[in-house]
From TrEMBL, chains A, B:
The lineage of its organism: Bacteria, Pseudomonadati, Pseudomonadota, Alphaproteobacteria, Hyphomicrobiales. Pfam families: NUDIX. GO terms for molecular function: hydrolase activity. SUPFAM superfamilies: Nudix. The keyword Hydrolase applies. This is Nudix hydrolase domain-containing protein. The keyword Hydrolase applies. Belongs to the Nudix hydrolase family. Transmembrane segments: none annotated. Coiled coil: none annotated. It comes from the Bacteria. Keywords: Hydrolase. Residues 6-136 form the Nudix hydrolase domain. Its cofactor is Mg(2+). It comes from Methyloceanibacter superfactus.
């Protein structure tokens, strides 16, 4: 086949409830073990980024998200201490704040009202800021 | 290190001139050898997607693009016959229609007025449609 070696592809998902809280997980593994993070993970070969995003949310939080809006692509070579990963970040909204059930790489999963008061893994604080800007623009329409 | 194997990451760039023409290359190599395509290619480990996009445009057309706007992430597993590639597509605009100079993987590079009349490689017709929608939304602001 011989596709060139490129950065590893990941997805992250920002999920708001109607009160503006965000769904975060506590990371079970290094890097950033124990820190809050967005649900997400590596994209499998053969799945779209949207399918990978829904799968990771399901595996880590037990919740199903449907419509996804692209927030951005995050590709700083230093964003992940394991090596160069590039994340496609999506925004989803749930009609109600359903209780999550932590699974897979998530030690815990919970609705967080003030993420700015928490230490977040990777560049997830930046993704959350960008997602909030996008959500407020959409609300103006 | 052990990052999981994921789809290969590429970039593509839609470049409009002030008359609405788009900069396309003729592919020198398979797949889609001889077909028109957007300038683009594989992202190197250690570079951001934006840097990879500017580098590919420079290598294939000799032109320099500055500001980039994300159009979307294209990840259908069947979009590339070589294997699963995922492309971050960007929109750029040049202040004037400078003459391109084909290089690298490009057999030719030219400004095309009506891309809908051409057979395009990969899912580049879809990317061009999405980019035109984005550009017209931006023009309304």
């Amino acid at each position: 086949m011989g596709l060139p070696k490129t950065p590893a592809l990941t997805v992250d998902c920002v999920i708001h409830d109607p009160d503006g809280r965000v769904l975060l997980i506590r990371r079970k593994n290094e890097p950033f073990k124990g820190a809050f993070a967005l649900p997400g993970g590596f994209v499998d070969i053969g799945e779209t980024v949207e399918a990978g995003c829904r799968r990771e949310v399901r595996e880590e939080t037990g919740l199903e998200v449907a419509e996804l809006t692209l927030v951005g692509v995050y590709s700083d070579p230093g964003r992940d201490p394991r090596g160069h990963t590039v994340s496609a970040a999506f925004l989803a909204r749930l009609p109600a704040a359903m209780p999550p059930r932590a699974g897979d790489d998530a030690e815990a999963a919970e609705w967080v009202a003030d993420w700015r008061g928490e230490a977040l893994a990777f560049d997830h604080a930046q993704i959350l800021e960008d997602a909030e800007r996008l959500a407020s623009l959409a609300a103006e329409d």
